[in-house]
Structures are given as C-alpha cells and as structure tokens.
Amino acid sequence: MSDRTLRLCLVLLVAVLSTGVVQGAEAVLKVGAAEVEITPAMGFPMAGYYHERLATGKKDPLWAKAVVWEQGETRAAFVGCDLTGISFDLTSEVRQRVAAQTGIPPQAIILSGTHSHTAPDYGRDLYRLLGSKGTSPGGEAAYSARLIDGVTQAIVQAQKNLVPASVSIATARQQVPVSFNRRFVMKDGSVKTWQSLATPGVVRAAGPIDPELGLAVIRDTVAQKPIAVCTNFALHLDTVGGLEWSADYPYFIEQALRRELGPDVISVFGLGCCGDINHSNPASKDRNKTDFIGNSLGATAVAALPLAQRIESPRLRVVSEVVRLPLKQPSVAEIRQSRELLKAIQGGQKAEFFEQVAAYRMIMLDLYLNREPQGPPQELISTGLSHRLAGIGGELPVEVHALCLGEDLAFVFLPGEVFVELGLAIKQGSPFRQTHVVELSNFVETFYIPNRGAYAQGSYEVTNTALQPGGGELLVEAALRLLRQASQPAGPTSP
C-alpha cells in the first residue's frame, strides 16, 4: 500500500468516526426532555368526582413533561401530563400542532395522564373551545387554549433539547405497602368496591396488585449528566383531596429523584394499570397520606438507581395499532331516564351514587352512538365530551402503542383506566427485559377497562365503563402483537 493510499484511508476513517456512524452500527440515539406548567387559575373546575369543585389554591404545580426520542429516521414523543385523563380531542389538537412544528409523525406522539384528582376538569371547556373553532379569545375557553399550547410547547422544546443519550433501566419491588386491590369478594358471591376487611360479608380481595416499580434513567452522554427519569407504578392518584391543585404523590417522587440526581432532572411518571387499585389499606382504619406514599416510592426509586444497567444496543422501535372496542348499547328509554335523573340532580335532588354514574355514562354513550343525541350533552356532563367522537357509532377506535429500545426496554401505552390483571398479562407476555405499561394514554373516553371476569362480578368499575366485555383482552392481544413485532431483529422500523 502506498503512503498516499494509506493517508487517504486514515482520512476516511477519521471522517466516519467523527460523525458517529460506523457501517453496520445503529444510528446514535438522541433524547430530549422538557416541561411546561399547565396549572389553571383559581376558580377553575377540578376533576375526579361527580359534583362541581372549584379550585381555591395550589399545593404544587401541574406540568406537561415531555420526552422526545430520535434515532436515524425514527422519532417519537411521549408527554406525561398532570391531568385526570387525556381526551381524544386534546390528543388530536396537540398532534396537529406538534407534527406541523417538529415533523414528528402524529401517530408517534403519545399523551398520557397521571390521573390526579386534584387536576382540572377541562372537558366542557375544551368542548366549547373546539365548538367555536378555536376563535374564542378568552373567557370560559381560555384555559383549554393554554393547555393545548402548553402540552405542545413541552414536546417542541424537548425536541430542541435533543442530545446523544444513554438509557439505563432498573426494576424494584415496592416493599412498603402503599397499593391495595380495592375490589372485594363477598360471601354472597358478588364483588363490591371500596370495602374493608372488617366489613361484614367480605371474604378477600378480588384481585392482585402490581408491586413493581420500573425505572428508566436517561443521561446526556456528552455532558455526562442525567436529564430525565421515567418511572412506572400502578396506584390510583386520588390521595390528596381538598380544593387545591396538586400532582399528587408523583410530586414527591420527583423531589426524591431531584435530591439525588440534581434539580434539573425531569421526572416523568407513567401510571401503571390500576383501574382496581387504590391507596386504602383494607386492614386499617387509616389511609396512607400523599407524602408517605410519594416519599416511599421515591425512596424505592432512589435505592434502585445504583442497580440500573445501561442498554448497550438501544435500537429505537415505535409501533402502534388501532383497536376497535365495542361500546355498550343503551336503549332510548335508558338515555331519556338518564337525562331526567341528571337534570333532577342539578336541581338539588339526591340520587344513589351508582345510578348517577350510570346516567353520566349513558349521556356520553348517546353522544358517541347517535348522530342526533337526545339533547345537548354538555348541559349534563363535562368529561367524555368529544367533537371527533360524536356520532362515531358502535365502536371506539383506540390506539395501542409500543416504544421499545433494543431487547431491554418497552413502553406500552393503553387508553382508559385498565385493570391491573390486564397490565400484568402484558408484562408477563412481553419479550423485553423491562416493560412499562402506561394507562390513560391518548384516549380517556373508554373510562374503566375491566377484565372480562369483572363484568360478571359487577360493582363500580363495571358501571363506569363505556365498553362491552372483552375490550380489555383485545388491548392485551394488540399489545403483545406489537411487542412481538418490535422485538424482531430485522425489518423496517416504523416512523
């Protein structure tokens, strides 16, 4: 080999290495994170219950926390929002704006709610805004316009913050009891929600819990510092109460991680499948407090940090599937009776709680099933309102997503409030070393998603679902198909 040829080979080798691209290797994984505050003003309605509550203060701020992933031509965004749920209309509005500003494909933009019950009830406000075609300059629709912009800007800023990154993962078992199955088998064979073991007729809890806390630490490989931590745990966020805005127990997880990793680390909480899980210990008269729960989970997460193992070949895959879930089919008479009941409640009449919940869902179903509902739904309900789902027919077209890194980490995103049994089935069938199953993603309008057996048992969650039996199992099947697809060693990646 001549000196000239040798020098030319060395120049070409240096050029290849300096770009970080080597023949046969994956493109460099880049990740960016950002957060934007989405706390409403005082006096805005609070979500989570079936009566109006107007906020009087703020315990801690509410955020939209975004993580953008990029590797070669594959890009995706996940944003965790301190909201009780993510309406399909909100998802659609944010996707349009983010895709236009960033080029991230709409189907690769995922919004998830943490399910805080001290977050805004924005449904009616958003419905009014979109009904006015977004032209309302303020007033009642002002918050929803800011909410859409805040979630959008979190993703846009996260993309601007993209840096070469590594991801390390760990799984820990929550040893201090903070989560409990809230459904109980009774001696008469029925199942009742929200019982204690001291209640006459209680036999045992009707299902399991998921004590696993998943952890994914994202580090800037150039600055050599952590930029974000994704945590995943299955426990209902209804631990605060009162009339002040609060992110609930994930706020304390965030504080614990920031004390350990630095004040700029963004803590993104993904809510695990917990449709039948809450914080009330059935063996005790006392409920665990928010700070106790959050600090305990935060301590578990911090203790797991030294155990986190780096993903050495973080091949990014993003795949999704639309699943059509059959809706319940109320009769015209049932819908009319429901409208009369809710109007009577607005007028001060008392009603049995389950009857009120059932009536609420009937009005929502009337909006989805019929092009001409029995009356304006916004007069009687706030959550579940949707322009895009109005008159859609007998099925809800929900999405299931899988965002995967190498052979080690998978995020599965599901709609609605999913029973823990269904989340565990996905984890047990996943080919990835660690799987975060995140509910309440992109689509809250299913509301509860019980497993099929729960329909025979009944109680609150079955009353408070829009779906016919079997919808949860369809989601599990779709998730496992996507995980299997994403685990294949070769083949085209999705956008």
Brief descriptors of the model:
single chain, alpha+beta, disordered N terminus, four-stranded mixed β-sheet, 495 residues, 12 helices, 31% helix, 2 domains
In words, what does this structure look like?
This protein has 495 residues and is of the alpha+beta class. The protein folds into 2 domains: 383 residues, no CATH class; 52 residues, no CATH class. Helix content is 31%, strand content 25%. The protein has 12 helices and 22 strands. Strands 1, 3, 4, 5, 6, 11, 12, 14 and 16 form a 9-stranded mixed β-sheet that branches. Helix 2 links the parallel strand 4 and strand 5. Helix 2 crosses helix 4, helix 5 runs parallel beside helix 6 and helix 9 packs parallel to helix 12. It starts with a helix and ends in a 9-residue tail after the last helix.
Largest sheet: 9 strands, mixed
SS-based structural class?
Answer: alpha+beta
Gross morphology is globular
Rounded to the nearest angstrom, the radius of gyration is 23 Å
Q: Count the helices. How many?
A: 12
Note the quaternary state here: single chain
**Which regions have little confidence, pLDDT < 50, spanning 5+ residues?**
1-25
- Overall pLDDT: 92
As a percent range, the share of helical residues equals 25-40%
Strand content: 15-25%
Cα distance spanning the termini: 44 Å
Number of domains as seen in the coordinates: 2
Could you give the count of β-strands? 22
